[in-house]
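Weekly structure sync, notes
Attendees: PL (lead), two postdocs, one rotation student
Agenda item 3: pending single-chain targets
PL asked that the sequence for the first pending target be pasted directly into the notes so everyone works from the same version. It is reproduced below exactly as submitted, 618 residues in total.
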Amino acid sequence: MKLKYSFLYLILFICTLYPAQNTFFDGLKDQLNKEQTSVPEKFKIFNELTEYYRVSDQYPTAEKYVQQQIELAQKEHNSTEEVKALVQKGIIKLNQSEYAKVPPIIDAVHIIVQKSHDKTAALYTEYLNIYYNNSLGEYENTIKLIQKVLPSVEKLPSEILLNAKLNYLLYGIYTAWNDAENATQYAKKAIVLSEKSGNKNMLSSAYSALAVCYSFQYEKTGDLKDLKTVIEICRKAVALYHQFPGRVSAYAHAIALLNLANYYLSFPTITPEIRQEIQASANEILALTQHTTLNQANQAGALGILSTLAIKDHNDALAEQYLLKAEKILLTQKPVYYPIMITVAKNLAQLYAQQKNYQRAYEYQMKVTEYSHILFDEGQAETAKRLEAQYQSQKKESELRSLTEKTTNLKKEKLLYIGLGIIGLIGAFFMFRSYHFKLRYSIERENKLDTEKHEAEMQIKLQEEEQARLKAEQELLTLQQQKLQSEVLASQLHIQHKNEILQQLHTQLSDTDTDINIQQIVKGENRVDNDFEKIRFTIQELHPDFFKNINERAQQKLTALDLKYCAYIYLGMDTKQIANLLNVEPKSVRMTKYRLKKKFGLDEHTALETFFQGIFSE
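Predicted structure, written out during the meeting:
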């Protein structure tokens, strides 16, 4: 009796609740049509109605309000509200897996933002791009985009709800990755932000998200304390619907009830109190979905929960009745939601197998196979659509990146040219000022400088003439000194030769056994004197720097004897002549020539005569 009384009271409560809820939204619609309603209030109502019908999966109604909001925003030239409406339109298309229709919407909002430079509109544009990437399964890119835009959103107190939605998306991604720690962190942030925003519908979803995070812990530990924490959070989500009538959609409330009932079924032992809570939740879902559309999945879920209770009571007939009704309801939805349909068919097959009704069990097992194939094909088609959208998105991003780089380079070039032009103008200005100043200064000093310039020119001319005279005298002295040095060296060579001849005569005269032909020696010496005079004249007159030049060309220091050999060789004397002149063996002359080649750094194939001639032909 207690259970029946509670259930009856619940039904009565829901029936009295729905008129209030309908009155709330009917009141928004009536207010929208009133002339005294201001434009900002109308935009607020449009956003609330669109959000409500979108999260309730009532997309045609949501799109109707989106279109009205766009028309009003264009009329009022309100770029922010136009972008908000287009973003809702894009999200609706993504929820319906119409991926190809979203990029044009993204392009449209980008154009609006570029024209208006509205920061809030830019944030909503980024949100649509984030939602698009998340729908395509590009989670890493989604996280990067969220982390990029979050700091800007957090600075705007008016966009707390958008901040909550971004954190909710992060929760969803980390849940898909089984990262309970990060998922819990962002679910908690979504709850705090949803409470601040006043959006109870979002708060209900955030509570349900946090319950999912804590359920990970229960699955890991199996501790009933963790499960009780999950139940407590789910009850908070459920309570919002009754605490704030009309502020939580029936769809979101049904999801919260389904979560609560399913978590209750996780208890190892179903007590009468728990059973009452489960049955009450399932019946409330069925009552809720009678007043809304597109809730077949929630209805089937509630019937599935009731069938589970019936099976626990060993009431197979009632369980069969619930499951058949769930199947019938799911078939009314277009398209059919096959994940739940497969579960219903599978439960019926198992139920009939337990009843040993193998014919019916086989029929529903075949339906499970058929539905699984359909679901697989739908999944493949969905994946193909998603991949195509990813390809088009990446292609567009690549083209956009290329155009952006090109635009950036053009801007840089433009700025460079502008900078050069400015620098040129500044330079020309300063040049003009400098020229003007110099011109005025030169005019002022012109008369004074004329006389000073004449005197300076005369003085400079005298100095130049004096310097030219001194330079000429210096050069003359230098030439005379070089000539004297050359004569001294040549005379020294001649005196040395004479001394050697005298020494030779002395030696021959001392040797009584040697026949001396004095006349022949004197005649030879006269010839040598004449040759030497010619040599000295040639060296002094034609090449006064002969000995200086060969000393500079030598890689090793030259002795006086080396200089003598160089002079003889330069004058064209052969080995025999030099040997006779110096009274040495021809072999000694050849050795001296070899040693001179080494001192001058010459190879064995280069003749000294050629080398010396080359020095003075330069």
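Discussion points:
- The first helix runs from residue 2 to 33.
- The radius of gyration is 56 Å.
Action: rotation student to compare against the earlier draft before next sync.
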